[in-house]
Amino acid sequence: MDWVAFLGRTISNGCAGWLAALRANAWPDRLRVRVIALYMLIAYVPMMGHVYRDAVGHVGSDFLAFWGAGRIVAAGIPWDVFDLATERAAQAASHTGQMVAYVNPPPYLFLTWPLGLLPYAQAWLIWALGGWLIWFAVARRVLPHEPLAVLAYPAAFLAGCHAQNGFITGALLIGGVLAVARNTRRSDIVAGLLFGALVIKPHLALLVPLWLIAARRWRVLGAGAASAALLCLASLVVFGPATWAAWPTGLHVDAVLMAQTSGPFFLRMATPYALLRVTMGPSVALAGQAAISFATAILLWRIARQQGATAATGALMLAATAIASPYLFSYDFPFLIQPTLWLVAQAQRLGWRAWEKPALIMLWLAPLATRSAALPLHANLMPLAGLALVCVVLSRLPGAQSTISGWSGAVSAGNSPDARGSLNTST
Predict the structure, then answer these.
(1) Is the distance from CB of 309 to CB of 125 less than 8 angstroms?
(2) Chain mean position to CA 165
(3) Rounded distance, CA 206 to CA 22, Å?
(4) Which among 15, 21, 126 is positioned nearest to 66, based on CA atoms?
(5) From the centroid of its chain, how far is CA 72?
(6) Interior CA angle at 105 toward 100 and 108, to 5°?
(7) Which end of the chain, N or C, is surrounded by fewer C-beta atoms within 10 Å?
(8) Residues 58, 62, 64, 67, CA torsion sign
């Protein structure tokens, strides 16, 4: 029996040593992180190939909605993009046998129009891979010396698999925050133009105006309002008032989906509302989401009022968006690379705290991990990861006296004397 005891001690000592290395952030080192990211990129290639075969086969893709809308616009009848029968006919040319309803606002048609001029399979590749590269070109500026960690971000892989618009909205949000942080006249205008373009998916910009108003960044706000207004006006002129009049018809599809009482829709949705809806019912979900959105808004207001609109408070704004918006899916989260890698940059500059590196690796993996586990667990746990990200960002904000462990602590810190101063949609 001595060998059994020896084996037990060996395993125990090995586990203790490994845990000590994780606590001290000695593992993984920078080289291993890069190797892990490279391996993930290599793994994405066959997985993306499988997704592509399904997308152009008989499984279909969310991209059908964008491509079909582009074909309808190219045919000269943009107001019919919200008509289900017309959409079905337009998407039939993909030969997938599937249909996905188009529900985005009319300005989004400027993006879909060129796609409708291409064959479906070619347009899918250009949209998915081109969007990934555009997002990467913007996002890598957050941490320029770690391009692999950016390119391999799991939320980017999800956006690519779905051929969704998370790359576009992510590039707009990240680019806007980076431009605001530069705080020059030109960068303020650029930031406003980028934020205003989020009129294509406005619920992702839920906290942006609050952040800018709290920080008194009026030039950015003015440029953003002008950008949004010009995009809406341009779409009115190009696509006609009938298209705007038809848009509420498309929103009826979302209403039907949100009224579901079973099925995987709310497991794919990655918001507190969806998690509470699955576990506690619609009334609790609505009240819970409202409370969380209000709490994050108050928290962001107090901190931005004191510290202004910087890369740090921008990281908080983007992290908070993941739990404040009631209607988000995993493919919407490429923008979370900014708060995640902002934390890495802070740790590299100021020193790693106990367990911080493994925690950030788990948060980096969270969009894909929670999406993969949602159906088996019958719960999408991404809101918990989003809350954790908010708390870690809070603990790294300049002037923070202690790690923020919960909402009550976060609000207290913000109020203390030291802190004051098949029917689917594709959206």
Answers:
(1) no
(2) 10
(3) 36
(4) 126
(5) 28
(6) 85
(7) N
(8) negative
Neighbouring C-alpha atoms within 13 Å toward the C-beta of 87? 23
**Nearest CA to 168 among 141, 140, 136?**
136
Count of beta carbons in the 10 Å neighbourhood of residue 419: 19
pLDDT tens for each residue of 242-268: 999 999 987 778 777 777 766 788 899
Are 272 and 325 in contact, with CB atoms under 8 Å apart?
no
Task: Give, to the nearest 10 degrees, the angle between helix 337-350 and helix 311-324.
Answer: 140
Question: How many residues are listed for the chain in this entry?
Answer: 427
CB contact set of 86 (below 8 Å; sequence gap of 6+): 72, 77, 80
Tens of pLDDT along the chain (427 residues) come to: 455 554 455 455 556 665 666 666 666 778 888 999 999 999 999 999 999 999 999 888 999 999 999 999 999 999 999 999 999 999 999 999 899 999 999 999 999 999 999 999 999 999 999 999 999 999 999 999 999 999 999 999 999 999 999 999 999 999 999 999 999 999 999 999 999 999 999 999 999 999 999 999 999 999 999 999 999 999 999 999 999 999 998 777 877 777 776 678 889 999 999 999 999 999 999 999 999 999 999 999 999 999 999 999 999 999 999 999 999 999 999 999 999 999 999 999 998 988 889 999 999 999 999 999 999 999 999 999 999 999 999 999 975 443 344 444 443 444 333 333 334 455 5
The residue segments making up the domain with residue 177 are 29-421
According to DSSP, residue 426 is labeled E
Other C-beta atoms closer than 10 Å to the C-beta of 144 total 9
Which amino acid does the sequence have at 311? A
Number of domains in the chain: 1
At residue 369, what is the residue type?
A
Residue pair 52/125 in contact (Cβ under 8 Å)? The answer is yes
Q: Is residue 9 part of a domain?
A: no
d(CA 285, CA 302): 26
In a domain, 6, yes or no: no
Dist CA 199 CA 340 (whole Å): 25
Q: Is residue 22 part of a domain?
A: no
Average pLDDT, the chain: 88
Residues 6+ apart with CB under 8 A from 8: none
DSSP letter string, 96-137: SS---EE-S-GGGHHHHHHHTTS-HHHHHHHHHHHHHHHHHH
**Lookup: tokens for 74:** 């190219």
Structure token pair of residue 310: 């910087």
